[in-house]
Amino acid sequence: MVRLITHNLLACHVKGCNANNFPLEFRNVELEIREAEFNPDFVKGFLPKIEWKALVDTARQLGDTSLPEEQPEMLDDDFLKNLHHVLLEIHVEEGAMVCPNCKHEYPIASGIPNMLLAEHEIA
């Protein structure tokens, strides 16, 4: 499933595309919100792995404005619940992810991204 927790770790891997290849931009997406059990310790533990600006920008692109522009010092319950929602409950079911650099398109069908490349695109 394409959730923002995994999207935040993905960059374009087309041969020679190694600058400005993150984050991939969503296009023509269909979203589904699916509740997931809230685990504050998991969210806190994952926080250091997040590229914050990319996450906030992507969430806003998808219509969610619950995260602050800057990562807060205080991790209160409201913040952790909003972060949990953005990372784990927003599912991209259909559409595509597009590299901002080379414009390669990674299609998403039934919640599954196709990250495979043609032979001439492989590094």
Walk me through the structure.
With 123 residues, the chain is α+β, with helices and mostly antiparallel strands. The chain has one domain: N-terminal domain of TfIIb, CATH 2.20.25.10. It is 28% helix and 22% strand. Strands 1, 2, 3, 4 and 5 form a five-stranded antiparallel beta sheet that branches. β4 and β5 form a beta hairpin. The protein is globular. The mean pLDDT is 94. Interacts with TRM9. Belongs to the TRM112 family. InterPro entries: Trm112 (IPR039127), Trm112-like (IPR005651).
Written as H for each helix and E for each strand, in order along the chain, the element string is EHEHHHEEE
Amount of helix: 25-40%
The count of strands amounts to 5
Radius of gyration: 15 Å
Shape: globular
Biggest β-sheet description = 5 strands, antiparallel
SSE-based structural type: alpha+beta
Second rung of CATH, namely the architecture: Single Sheet
Q: Note poorly predicted spans.
A: none
Give the helix tally: 4
CATH topology: N-terminal domain of TfIIb
Terminal residue distance: 25 Å
Residue-averaged pLDDT: 94
Total domain count = 1
% residues in beta strands: 15-25%
User: What is the highest CATH level, the class?
Assistant: Mainly Beta
Record keyword descriptors for this entry:
N-terminal domain of TfIIb, five-stranded antiparallel beta sheet, 4 helices
SSE topology:
Blueprint (H helix, E strand, L loop, with lengths): L1 E2 H4 L17 E9 L6 H7 L5 H10 L15 H13 E9 L6 E5 L2 E2 L10
Antiparallel strand pairs: 1-3, 2-3, 3-4, 4-5
